[in-house]
Design a protein that fits this description.
disordered N terminus; two-stranded parallel sheet; 13-stranded mixed sheet; alpha/beta; 17 strands; Leucine-rich repeat, LRR (right-handed beta-alpha superhelix)
Length: 437
């Protein structure tokens, strides 16, 4: 859910009023009426829409501050542009502390018509206590009828001990309040620490219509031992399983991944994205990812492979490929630079050698006969030097059985892409920040 980012900071507008009272400006002269604009209203509204940056990064407050100020100025220009400007301004709201949360709740109580304008809520807690992430659901319950996306994020930077991070301590009433967001379909959790697995599962199970779940850099530390192995993760599915359409898991403990897969209704999953921890896989692939084999309606599967100084490891992804169903349409293996490789210390030849060592297993796991005629395989390289043509030329002799397959005239079964990801991607800053496996 993309839109303009509005951080609720109580500001004084023209005439000393705040955004909450811009609609009530008796006697104010409307410049649009006086100047009799030559441009039609529809075009002016499109200009206001253009100010909104749909690709804005919700983690970078200052980069889009000018956009926020511009949209707020449009709200104060005249009554004609107020509805469109306010709609773009409130489309996405960012809360950074308890003071902003209380001010935003007051604004919704004061101007009730603003409630329907909020489609996305970003609660960005800078390790503050009390955390707005714990309180946002009870405070805003029943006030955001059209909220479709909720993002809970904590940013502290690298810390030597994950237990130093503040834990999510939602009361039972908070989980009950989440169920009031009847239109909430997307939930993103990033940088949070949970004391128990059941707290995490209760959180993701609270929204009745949730279909998109993104989990990024989550920590699980029980209060007594702090060990992930002491988490009580049920080995059986819950009574009410999650019906998730899109699941994106990055840098979370594999034991939590396994528990979450068991909690999902298998037939509902269409898209699965996995970025595993840097720690080696302790158990066999079947015990961690065995439930993926039940995702028979899976249409796309993406696996991010860390490329270190000595190349990349493929054992985990090879085991996962063996579990994929026949009907998956897109398989993406995306290689990203990690550690010293981020500085391009590792030459491209190391990557080629790693692929050559695993060529036979890759060709067996990706054998076109295992999948439907519509299946396509994409091998991506993030921020590697070298064009797609160069990578294709190097890989064709290594994976000949995959490159020679063509389902359509001019359409290859296997293609190579060189991509660059945006700054908010979980693999962009992974130094010593992934959860322990």
């Amino acid at each position: 859910m993309q839109g303009a980012a509005f951080t609720y900071i109580p500001c004084v507008g023209v005439g000393g009023g705040s955004l909450a009272d811009t609609s009530a400006t008796p006697g104010r002269l409307c410049c649009m009426d006086v100047l009799s604009p030559r441009l039609p209203l529809e075009l002016l509204e499109l200009i206001v829409d253009y100010i909104r940056d749909d690709d804005v990064d919700d983690m970078d407050f200052y980069s889009d501050f000018d956009e926020y100020r511009t949209l707020r100025a449009c709200c104060l220009v005249c009554r004609t542009l107020l509805p469109r400007s306010r709609g773009n301004l409130l489309r996405r709201v960012r809360i950074m502390d308890m003071g902003q949360l209380r001010s935003f709740a007051w604004m919704l109580d004061t101007v009730v018509e603003n409630r329907a304008l909020v489609l996305e809520l970003v609660v960005l807690s800078i390790a503050a206590q009390p955390s707005p992430a714990d309180s946002c659901a009870p405070v805003l319950a029943g006030k955001l009828p059209r909220l479709r996306c909720l993002r809970l994020r904590t940013e502290m930077g690298p810390v030597p001990d994950p237990t130093m991070r503040p834990a999510v301590r939602m009361h039972r009433s908070a989980f009950a309040s989440l169920s009031s967001f009847q239109q909430l379909v997307e939930l993103q959790l990033s940088g949070l620490r949970f004391l128990q697995y059941k707290h995490f599962l209760r959180l993701v199970s609270s929204a009745p219509k949730l279909s998109v779940l993104q989990c990024m850099q989550l920590w699980f530390n029980p209060p007594k031992t702090g060990s992930t192995s002491d988490l009580f993760i049920p080995t059986h599915p819950p009574v009410r399983q999650l019906r998730l359409y899109h699941v994106d898991l990055a840098f979370i403990p594999r034991a939590v991944m396994a528990g979450l897969f068991r909690a999902i209704e298998p037939s509902s999953v269409k898209h699965l994205v996995i970025t595993p921890n840097k720690a080696p896989l302790a158990d066999d692939v079947e015990s961690t990812y065995g439930d993926v084999a039940k995702f028979r309606n899976l249409e796309s599967f993406t696996f991010f492979i860390a490329v270190a100084e000595d190349g990349a490891e493929y054992a985990e992804v090879l085991g996962l490929l063996a579990l994929l169903g026949h009907n998956v349409r897109t398989i993406t293996l995306s290689h990203y630079l990690h550690g010293a490789a981020r500085n391009h210390i590792v030459p491209k030849r190391s990557m080629i050698d790693a692929l050559r060592r695993n060529a036979d297993e890759l060709q067996r796991s990706l054998d076109p006969g295992r999948f439907s005629a519509d299946t396509r395989v994409v091998v991506q390289f993030q921020d590697f030097h070298g064009s797609e043509a160069w990578w294709t030329k190097e890989l064709e002799p290594i994976l000949p059985n995959l490159f020679k397959v063509q389902h359509d005239p001019g359409g290859r079964y296997l293609s190579v892409k060189n991509v660059t990801y945006s700054d908010w991607s979980p693999w962009e800053d992974d130094k010593d920040r992934s959860a322990p496996s």
